[in-house]
Amino acid sequence: MSAKEDNEGKSSFHHTDLYGSIPPTCLPIVYHPGYNITFMGLEKLHPFDSGKWGKVIRFLKEEQFITDENIVEAREASEEDLLVVHTKRYLCSLKWSFVVATITEIPLLVILPNCLVQQKVLRPLRTQTGGTIMAGKLAVERGWAINVGGGFHHCSGDKGGGFCAYADITLAIKFLFERVEGISRATIIDLDAHQGNGHERDFLGDTRVFIMDMYNHNIYPGDEYAKRAIKRKVELDWGTEDSEYLQKVELHSEGALNEVRPDIIVYNAGTDILDGDPLGGLSISPQGLIGAKATEREGLSQLVTHLTQSSGSAGSAHTAV
């Protein structure tokens, strides 16, 4: 892997701490304790679990899959990093607590000083965004990578929503397109229960990016304009259960991965498809969820193997989750 350079042989991009070297002893799993949003119980005013990332890490440590020493610590995305995709106008709008309250759907944030909102709400989201960008680079270096947080697929370059204040998926892909040789085509597979209208708006008309989105079409956001960017659209109904869901995951993910030959695959693995989730409106059992993720992992692994063999070089396809 080599960074893209201008005609004088010097880097033509801003300095970023997100593309620093990672020790080979670390697994390509990115996390930071600062991902979790806890502040006077305000996080409980939204059905979205803003502490779920720490719960995942705690479970993995208890099962001895990971340790603090072998995971990659995420770094907060700087304003310059964010400006790769976001407009200055949008970033400035986040200095108003009312705007952040609207994006996160937590009305009480309106009464808080913005300095507290920045520290307790937006900084965790910026750190998760940095983690997604870091995972993109790690996927190129290692063949795969996971960011335990992120996946803010309702945010585009100039608009946030649905608890998503930064467009981390778009940022990760654009960082790779601009900075890494050999990365010029991307596939996004979005299995969150909601339509990923943020990255869809950002990549509308961009032929370098293939988007598969499988979601409950009856719920937020219902963005018809953004749907124009979806190359493989799979709309689900209320209460979709395991058998139908797993059949569609297998059929359409295989179809998407066979339709194009991407250099990077971004898989947004939402868990809000579970039965009883207050937001997703689907009825997938825990066993069905595990089956869906296993099917997707198998498909991604097969694609990586196929592309590697076809090109005759290792690491020609990379997966970031």
Helix proportion range? 25-40%
Query: What ranges have pLDDT less than 50 throughout 5 or more consecutive residues?
Result: 6-10, 305-316
Strand arrangement within the widest β-sheet reads 2-1-3-8-7-4-5-6
Biggest beta-sheet profile: 8 strands, parallel
Oligomer: single chain
Strand content: 5-15%
**Structural class by helix and strand composition:** alpha/beta
Cα radius of gyration in angstroms? 19 Å
Instruction: Output the helix-strand order.
Output: EHEHHHHEHEHEHEHEHE
Number of strands: 8
> What characteristic shape results from the CA principal axes?
globular
Please work out how many helical segments DSSP would assign.
10
- Report mean pLDDT, rounded to a whole number: 89
Determine the N-to-C terminus distance.
20 Å
Secondary structure topology:
Layout: E1 29-31, H1 52-62, E2 72-73, H2 79-82, H3 88-93, H4 97-104, H5 114-142, E3 144-147, H6 168-179, E4 186-190, H7 197-202, E5 209-216, H8 224-227, E6 232-236, H9 242-259, E7 264-268, H10 286-311, E8 318-320
Parallel strand pairs: 1-2, 1-3, 3-8, 4-5, 4-7, 5-6, 7-8
Helix pairs in contact: 5-6, 9-10
